[in-house]
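USER: I would love a firmer grasp of how sequence relates to backbone shape in proteins. This is the protein in question:
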Amino acid sequence: QVQLVESGGGLVQAGGSLRLSCAASTRTFSTYIMGWFRQAPGKEREVVATISTTGGTTNYADSVKGRFTISRDNARNTVYLQMNSLKPEDTAVYYCNARFFGNNYWGQGTQVTVLS
């Protein structure tokens, strides 16, 4: 069982920045593909960004390319999401995800609200 704890959400003006962190309680963090997802009210959860086990490969949703950056620190068992040039449509609950073959774990989520 892996526990994921997100932090760093909050209220920000459009054009501002936030950095989300997700700390994982596992000794095998480096074996997990990590990702950030988000869910806005009335919408389905969607993938925002993913990062490979070594951090060498990242993927982004088209809506955040060029504005968000996912990274990880395997020594600290932590994955980050740097969010710049935030827009009101980025408002959502952001969830951290850890995936290893058939195992899939989620954090409790952190609210990000972008004011216009």
Remarks:
- The CA atoms of residues 23 and 78 lie 5 Å apart.
